[in-house]
Amino acid sequence: MSTTVAKHVDVLVIGAGMGGICAAARLQHAGLSTLLVERADRVGGRASTFEVDGFKVNTGAVAIENGGDMEQTFTDVEAELRLRYPEPANVFRIKGKTVNPARGGWSFLLDQITKKGAKMLTQLGSARRGEMPEEQLTLERWIAGATSNQTVHRLFRNLSAAIFAVNADEIPAKAFLTYFMQKGAFRTFGFHPEGTIGVCRALADVVTRDGGEVWLSSTVTALRTDGARVTGATIERDGRTVQVTCGAVISNVGPEATIGLCGEAALGAEYVGSIRAGARPSANMIIHVASRQPLLDTPGLIVFSATERICNAGNMTATCPELAPEGWHLTVVYAVPRPAVGDFDSAIELALALQELQEELPGMKDPDTRVIDARVMRDDWPAQRAASGYELPRNTPLDNLFNVGDGVRDYGDGGTQSCATTARIVVQELLEGQVATA
Ligand SMILES: Cc1cc2nc3c(=O)[nH]c(=O)nc-3n(C[C@H](O)[C@H](O)[C@H](O)COP(=O)(O)OP(=O)(O)OC[C@H]3O[C@@H](n4cnc5c(N)ncnc54)[C@H](O)[C@@H]3O)c2cc1C
Questions:
Q1: According to a count of CB atoms within 10 Å of the terminal CB, is the N or C end of the chain lower?
Q2: Is this prediction's pTM over 0.90?
Q3: Are residues 273 and 288 both part of a single domain?
């Protein structure tokens, strides 16, 4: 039988995805009593890890960019970010060969594809000087203005798919270029030897180390409000109902689900309407393959240039052999459906991706090679909660309710790094006393 207990904290964080866990670690380390509540039985959300037949399989993110707000979060909360860095980090598969762009950047890369890359380089040069295309121009149309070469088109589509989980006709060229010209753009990144959950576990440990609480297998079912502010939440935990009162709430479940927890009336028709009209989650597919021999000849991530669904792949065991049982390799492959934003047939798209994988990687034909997990990320468990260029606001009409995570990242930002940035900004607002948490 359900009993009700009561509790008070300075800040309630809903969801232990990358944005939520970065926020909770920062808050508790800064001295605010923090309760981090996670529905699943493990931390990480789409940056977590589970086991299949002794292989450590990631739920989403594998590559953790170094530098920037992710590394800064670990420094600020005095925790260790234990990553292993593949070298080279990024390579491309062009005309059957593995090409390392570190040798000469875009110009070297385009040279491997076409001797007519000059206009493309001129366009890239303009973007580097800050002359960005107009907002509505898609990446596909921007490339078409420079070249009709199909390999160049597929290469940029696959870069866009690998980083933003969208096709080239679904992302503004400006958002894509902002990321490559002004942000980290995964130039260097590491893999965690426990799987990506290791990154999130280290931050959850900071919350408890510094006196806060992390509740797993617990679900926030409703938020209470008193007009201008959130005052508390109802949480289902171990068959009991817990009523929490709090000074502020940081939600990592995405702006739409946060509306569901608050109720539409508390947030107002204008805000609710703008979130629903603006929400554009994007989808992708993640495939894990076990093999006796490495399927790739590189330790980092490889971006394909001859494919239409699968976009990139990484041999996780080249740097982290403990992710697979002895004698085995683990390869992760990402694919993006067409379309990635909007409706598509999951079964057909996954079958097309698997077929391409067979054609692209000869080791797939080895009798010992097997797909151990293949899943489509979409709808309320998407690749990105907001497609790039269509980010939603972090602030809400309530003074002390904020969103963090990839639905509310900065324009032209990407990956788990962008979630860490949302957490830094929101926590800073709270700590600067703009919101009373008592
Ligand atoms: C296939 C794939 C590959 C990717 N690869 C990379 C990569 O290599 N590198 C990279 O940096 N990024 C990558 N990304 C992107 C990255 O994984 C996501 O952007 C990031 O993990 C999203 O984090 P988030 O903060 O939005 O939280 P989420 O992951 O959305 O977590 C939200 C959490 O809230 C919990 N929750 C929901 N409702 C409730 C509730 N009512 N009560 C309590 N808890 C609740 C959920 O269980 C979940 O754990 C990839 C994404 C995908 C899907």
A1: N
A2: yes
A3: no
